[in-house]
Design brief:
The complex is a heterodimer of chains A (288) and B (379). The two termini of chain A are 42 Å apart. With 288 residues, chain A is an alpha+beta fold. Chain A has two domains: 132 residues, Butyryl-CoA Dehydrogenase, subunit A, domain 2 (Beta Barrel), CATH 2.40.110; 151 residues, Butyryl-CoA Dehydrogenase, subunit A, domain 3 (Up-down Bundle), CATH 1.20.140. Chain A is 48% helix and 19% strand. Chain A contains seven helices and ten strands. Chain B has three domains: 112 residues, Acyl-CoA dehydrogenase/oxidase, N-terminal domain (Butyryl-Coa Dehydrogenase, subunit A, domain 1); 107 residues, Beta Barrel (Butyryl-CoA Dehydrogenase, subunit A, domain 2), CATH 2.40.110.10; 147 residues, Butyryl-CoA Dehydrogenase, subunit A, domain 3 (Up-down Bundle), CATH 1.20.140. Chain B is built from twelve helices and ten strands. In chain B, the strands form three sheets. Chain B has a four-stranded mixed β-sheet with strand order 1-4-5-8. Chain B has a four-stranded antiparallel β-sheet with strand order 2-3-7-6, with helices on one face. In chain B, helix 4 runs antiparallel to helix 5, helix 8 packs parallel to helix 10 and helix 9 packs antiparallel against helix 10. Chain B starts with a helix and ends with a helix. The relative contact order of chain B is 0.11. The model of chain B has no long low-confidence stretch (mean pLDDT 96). Classes of the chains: A alpha+beta (288), B alpha+beta (379).
Chain lengths: 288, 379
């Protein structure tokens, strides 16, 4: 939606946005491919102009909502240059467009993931977003937003883990005292709190800057590098604090840990965040 | 490793590749335990590695045992755990059982025909095990057991259970140890836990309702339950540590293999320095853990079990297993998060290694206690 709103034409917006916003329709976005993950700009799915239409051929991998999407927002290659990428809106049911079965994942299990397949799939020119070759800029701007918002999920997970640990520390008794009495437990909870607050303040500050129109590729990447990583640590500690119960499905902690791990991988891995920040910070230094 | 150990491990690896590996992805999803795999390991001679040959054991050392567990854990943490718990029951029987008890129960366990399980924890008695509430009341010819045990590894699949129950007053001194067989009247299985990992190793509640245990099935005498329970701790910790090393080693092996073949930005991801640093740290932590496990196992082989080393090995190796498996999922990225590759399973299996056999918080308490003791001895 966000990408369409920023880059789509008036006709495209009025045709697709209302139903996506109301929740009547589900959207998905196709960028990654089996061989092009972190190296997304290297993608191989091609769109060739044929009369008033484009013919799309290729596969898109790791697509969230694939099986349920009414509309797919698909990045393709339209030229020979590295950055000749163009986006198309493809509707469910378009001939030549199929979706694979669900991929079995460690977590995020109630959010389906699948593969999109295009075999000579014809899409009208009217469904092209912007001009040919515009999409690398679209992609990068949209990824910044995705990286910030996805980090909000990690913040929610960290807070839920902390809340559950505080509750349990007051309930569970061992050696005649509640866990809250043990310094080891106090340390775990105090650190979880400090880390969660650091996450919250960092995220909110960067969100505020974006609301003011002050974009920063570095800050968006720093948020994405920091929050998911800390939330995995906090969720692992929360399981540990609950012992056997934390490892069982009686508490939601093991699920939250499994869910959060994906945030360190999706929308750019931790390692890609490091690459981006390093490239920005060391741009001058690298010339020498 | 000496030549014998090398041969033992490479043959065992072959068995695991052929008999365990092909099932693990599906059995993990379905939570399916296969008795034929366990018995296959038994036929292979690894169900009772350290037990005396007189009772059907292999008569090998604890270092050999650590190597065996590491090898099995590279393919399946849950099957290695099933072996280790059953082996702990054997150690208890051979250390504290009388001749009749050993002859009656050990051979089926050492041969791997049957599985042994150990029942100490209850819903309110985890790290604080001495607060357990299951009772054993003296009756004519034996004891009547009442209560519920929780978190019992191999509950339902084991035939021989060592059960801790209260015969006297509060605290550790009021606890006694009993041998209870599957099928005993009044002994049933409660709910099976739904867990994050260890899915092919069942964890269940044991329920005792007026379950009669004959006098001859008591271990040692009344009030000696904690002697029995604590006697197996050092060995149990080394075993879990060895499993942690296997778990980490597999995650490392998968990471090296994948990063050498996966190309991004026109080069294998292995060639990125960031990846190399991760892999080097993973290998370093794994090797350091292995050396610590072997040092702890050596102290047991020397008949001078060093509790501090055993706790350190458990703590270090299981923290390493968690860290290395988490990093392995990261190295493999999206595919690492799916069940098509084994690393996410090993990551889920690793987490509970930090909780069982004394949480890693308890291990720190044990280490600190030993530090104080050593200081006072030298002062």
């Amino acid at each position: 939606m966000n990408n369409l709103n920023n880059n789509g034409s008036q006709e495209q917006k009025s045709k697709y946005l209302p139903k996506l916003i109301s929740g009547e329709h589900v959207g998905c976005m196709g960028m990654s491919e089996p061989e092009y993950g972190s190296d997304a700009v290297g993608m191989q799915t091609k769109a060739v102009k044929v009369g008033q239409e484009y013919e799309i051929t290729g596969n898109k991998m790791w697509i969230t909502n694939a099986q349920y999407a009414d509309v797919a927002y698909v990045y393709t290659r339209t030229g020979t240059g590295k950055k000749d990428l163009t986006t198309f809106i493809v509707e469910k049911g378009t001939p030549g467009f199929t979706v694979s079965k669900e991929i079995h994942k460690m977590g995020m299990r109630s959010s389906p993931t699948g593969e999109l397949s295009f075999q000579k799939c014809r899409v009208p020119e009217a469904n092209r977003v912007g001009k040919e070759g515009d999409s690398v800029i679209h992609m990068m701007k949209n990824l910044e937003i995705e990286r910030i918002t996805i980090s909000g999920i990690s913040l929610g997970i960290a807070q839920a883990c902390l809340d559950q640990c505080i509750k349990y520390a007051g309930e569970r008794k061992q050696f005649g005292k509640t866990l809250a009495n043990y310094q080891l437990i106090q340390k775990m909870i105090a650190e979880m709190y400090a880390e969660t607050e650091a996450m919250r303040r960092m995220l909110y500050t960067v969100c505020y800057e974006y609301d003011q129109g002050n974009r920063s590729n570095n800050l968006a990447s720093a948020v994405k590098l920091q929050l998911p990583k800390m939330a995995t640590k906090i969720a692992l500690d929360a399981i540990q604090l609950h012992g056997g119960y934390g490892y069982s499905r009686e508490f939601p902690l093991e699920r939250m840990m499994r869910d959060n791990k994906l945030n360190e991988i999706g929308a750019g891995t931790n390692e890609v965040m490091i690459m981006i920040i390093a490239k920005n910070l060391l741009n001058e230094a690298l010339k020498h | 490793m000496n030549d014998f150990q090398k041969e033992l491990c490479s043959n065992l690896a072959k068995f695991c590749q052929d008999s365990i590996e092909p099932h693990m992805e599906h059995d993990d999803a379905d939570g399916k335990f296969r008795m034929e795999i366990f018995q296959g390991l038994g036929e292979y001679g690894v169900a009772g590695v350290t037990q005396a040959e007189e009772f059907g054991g292999a008569g090998l050392t604890y270092i050999d045992y650590a190597l065996v567990l590491e090898e099995i854990a590279k393919y399946s943490v849950p099957y290695a755990v099933t072996i280790s718990v059953s082996s702990m029951v054997q150690s208890i029987l051979s250390s504290y059982g009388n001749q009749a008890q050993k002859e009656k129960y050990l051979p089926a366990l050492t041969s791997g025909q049957e599985i042994g399980a150990f029942a100490l924890s209850e819903s309110h008695a985890g790290s604080d095990a001495a607060s357990l509430k299951t009772t054993a009341k003296k009756v004519d010819g034996g004891y009547m057991l009442n209560g519920t045990k929780m978190w019992i590894t191999s509950g339902g699949i084991a035939k021989t259970y060592i059960v801790m129950a209260r015969t006297g007053g509060e605290g550790a001194k009021g606890v006694s140890a009993f041998i209870v067989r599957d099928g005993a009247k009044g002994f049933t299985f409660g709910k099976a836990e739904k867990k994050m990992g260890w899915k092919t190793s069942p964890t269940r509640e044991l329920v005792f309702e007026n379950c009669f245990v004959p006098q001859e099935d008591m271990l040692l005498e009344e009030g000696k339950g904690f002697t029995v329970a604590m006697g197996g701790l050092d060995r149990g910790r080394v075993a879990i540590a060895a499993i942690g090393v296997g778990c980490a080693q597999r995650a490392l092996d998968e990471s090296i293999k994948y990063s050498l073949t996966r190309e991004q930005f026109k080069q294998p991801i292995f060639d990125f320095q960031g990846l190399q640093f991760m892999l080097a740290d993973m290998a370093l932590e794994t090797e350091a853990s292995r050396l610590l496990v072997h040092a702890a196992a050596q102290s047991i082989d020397d008949n001078k079990p060093n509790s501090k080393l055993c706790s350190m090995a458990k703590l270090k190796a299981t923290d390493t297993a968690m860290k290395v498996t988490t990093d392995a999922v990261q190295v493999l990225g999206g595919v690492g998060y799916t069940s098509e590759y084994p690393v996410e399973r090993f990551m889920r299996d690793a987490k509970v290694l930090q909780i069982v056999e004394g949480t890693n918080q308890i291990q720190r308490v044990v280490i600190a206690r030993q530090l104080k003791k050593e200081y006072e001895q030298h002062a």
